[in-house]
Amino acid sequence: MEFVVEEGKRVDEECSTLILPALSIGNVGQLAVDLLVSSTGADRVGYLDDPYLLPCVGNDAYGPLPCGEISLPLEVYESPSTATTLAQQRSPVAKGMMIKFAENIADFAASSGKKHVIVLSSLDFQRLHHNLDMSRGPQVYYLSNAEANGRDEHCERLGFGRLNEYDSEGRCWKYLCSVFDENCKEELTFPSEDELEDIDYYPSLPFAALFSAFKARGLKVTCLLCYCSEGDNIPDAFLLTRRSRRRFHSFLVLV
């Protein structure tokens, strides 16, 4: 993966929090990053060229009228006012290449001095097996590497619910850990489609590969997730955007 800085632009080293989507149902993570780019006034500073992303091109993603500003598959924006870097992924990863892509984006984050990575994504509402407390309104769930069980005290204080389906000793989570850990000598394999169980749904998603890759690079990583269905997912994106702003603002206060 190569980071190409736009001509005349300069990378701000103070933007030490990286926010990016993990593609999933409803494209909620991508919509949320678009909202963050627009609401923070972030400026595009470059793009990432990765061989495992499918090519795509668009016209002026944020202007009210198309003006010939080309949009690329993986763009990098910076918001100095919030000390954040936002990476917007506009095209999917080639089939079977998610592990390689996650390795590359984690290497970029580590080499560019990021201290905290926030991954925004969505989960299939049909997978929500436990009771949903609607009295609290729509909920955002999190997964963090602050503790071995995925718990994060600061996320708890913000009212997020921990993703209880995370099990670091589960076979698929252990597989992800092994493929990103260069010192792991245990050869594990991911179950075939016929062998997959309900609990394997979560580690099979892109956010899980990204979480494991960032964790293996020694970076602080938080995944913020919401359950949704296909359709009009703009309200879900607004929910995830509001909650992610609370998370990275609280992190800025801590550091």
TrEMBL record:
Keywords: Chaperone. Transmembrane segments: none annotated. Pfam families: PAC2. GO terms for biological process: proteasome assembly. One of its GO terms (cellular component) is nucleus. InterPro entries: Proteasome_assmbl_chaperone_2, Proteasome_assmbl_chp_2_euk, PSMG2_sf. The keyword Chaperone applies. Forms a heterodimer with PSMG1. Belongs to the PSMG2 family. Chaperone protein which promotes assembly of the 20S proteasome as part of a heterodimer with PSMG1. This is Proteasome assembly chaperone 2. It comes from Brassica napus (Rape). The lineage of its organism: Eukaryota, Viridiplantae, Streptophyta, Embryophyta, Tracheophyta.
